[in-house]
Amino acid sequence: MKYIFEVRIKEGHTAEEYARAWVRASELIQRAPGARGTELHRKIGDPDTLIAIASWDSKAQRDAMESRHDAEIAEIIRSAAPFVEIHPLGEFEDPEWVVRPSSNRRFDD
Fold it and tell me: Residue 35 in contact with residue 29, Cβ under 8 Å?
C-alpha cells in the first residue's frame, strides 16, 4: 500500500530544510516491519509543494508502526512542523499488476 501526503513549505523556509528532517525520520520509520521505502518529489512549477509517498507491505503494518510511539521520530516531526503544512492525501492500495521497463532491455528483446 501507499501512504501519500502533500507538504507545503511556508514562506521563509526551503524544501531542503524539510527534506533533511524527512530523511532522518524516514530512515527510522523504514526500520519497521513492512516498510518498503519512501520518496519525496517537488511539484513541477511550484518548488514549495512536495508530495511524499511511503510504501508498505500492508496497511496493518503501517498502522502498527503509527501506533508505537517513537520519541526520536516524534521530535524530528515536531522540529519540522513550524515551517510546513502537511495534508494527508490518503492510503492507496498497490495495483495488482505493475509493469516497469528495464533500462537495459531493448524493444525487440
Answer: yes
